[in-house]
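User: I'm new to structure prediction. If I give you an amino acid sequence, what do you actually give back? Let's try with this one:
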Amino acid sequence: MRFQRLLQALNKNRARNGSAHDRGKVVRFPENPSGTHRGVITRLVPGVIAGAADLDPAAALTATVAGASYGLSVAWVVLLCFPIVQAVLGVSARIGHETRLGLVRLIREHFGVRVAATIALMVVSVNVLMIIADIMAVSDAFSILVHQPRRYFPAAIAFTVWYILTRIGYDKVTTALAAIAMFQVAYIGAAALATDSVPRLAHGIFVPHMVGAGYVMALIAVFGSLLTPDVIVWQTGSKRESGASFHDQEARLGCVVAVLVSLSAIIASSQMHIANPMSMTTREAAQALSPLGELGPILFAIGIIGSGMVALPILVSSLCFSIAEAANWDYGLSKSPWEARRFFFLICLVLLCAVTVDYFGINTVKTLYWSQVLAGIFIVPILFFILWIANDRRIMKTTNNIWDNFWLGAAVGGMITANLIFFWTEIF
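Assistant: Good question. You get back a string of structure tokens that encode the predicted 3D arrangement of the chain. For your 428 residues, that looks like this:
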């Protein structure tokens, strides 16, 4: 009875406050203990969803290929990616928020048209491969769920992406789609069931066995899968349009989820026995969740569908952002198709070409894996420009702190070294 009276008094207080607020203001009610916890959860959930969504089909399948090929020896690079990804996302968002310009446009204005065109070409190359392969991966996932041939789904998926970008608006559906991507946390359960010895697991991660050019290529691919050029272009471009700030807490939690799921995918797939992991099919990749029994392939398929439908609009948009900025077109998802006709026509053209290629039946996993290797190579100059721009007081209102510079510098130096080793071993 006392609780009911307290609840009634609280509701009256909320109604009174709610009717008094002015337009554009947010009324904050007094928080009780349960409300405090609810508020914390409400702030944390977007970060968890963002982390799961960051693991698009390319990231999940690249981790699976790397784990099946080299076991736990590639897992350490995932842990190293956590502070790097967090720093890069934060710095990229701050650049877009303060300058109100996209990355390629900034490079065009301060480093010239040729440099901007080169960076745009790098982003486009990676994105084209990822768009083609992600559509195939989502089609494969639908095929697993409904037991129908893959060829029935690419056109419908591409149309859905087009409709989201041009009619509905990505921001209105991203939370629902990213929530479906959360099914990828099933990798954590599969990894736990596949681990029979914690000391052996720790030894495999922290005392890796490094061999050959293929191993270095796997490291480049895993790094590229967690930090692709499209993520940076989207981060600067979307903050340019929305003007929204980037919250460190959300970024940190999102990175934790992304790293956990990627690491778990490597651990789970390290128990797989496939003769040529790089040529595996999407159905074979689903075996990484075999410790979960018959439910494993279903959870795999749902997670791929959710993450793919979150990633594809970002991939298509960032590709078109890059071309529009390099060509100095009027662009933006917040504009109507009549205001930015070339930009929206480019979206249609990209999706049409991707679907056409998808019907040639190329291997999904191999295409995604090589796209992440390419991403790991091309990310180096992009990180260099991010580091330069973020510390230039002529461009930015605020500059990087010491840790942002440390992790960005470490990423540039580390990836240059890895790429040189890879090319040296491949050539000689």
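You can read the tokens as a compact description of the fold. Here is one thing that stands out. Residues 1-38 have pLDDT under 50 and may be disordered.
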